[in-house]
Amino acid sequence: MAGFGPARKDCRVASFVSVYVDWAAALEQVSAAAAELPLPAGVQRAEVVPAGDTFGCRVAVDLTGDFDEQRDGPRIARAYAARLSEAVGVPVFALHDLILAGRSDW
Asked: How many domains does the chain have?
């Protein structure tokens, strides 16, 4: 069930960030919510994908576009995660933040 969300064919996709959805949300629920959310500035595609069991999450949304990944990626992911969390009613996290939180446990 990949490929959910609008995509623009005239874009140069060079950047990528992900958000991960709490395990309590089903893939179909996340797909429906993501299809309704507007894409952040610089993002041309949002793809909902199964994530196995990654950081207690089983659904991810990959955001790709032409934004500056290092400078703007974490901000874009956090803002999208907040909107998606509101839409699905469960926590959603920027992958960047999950990785940083995991590193603090090492």
From this structure: 1
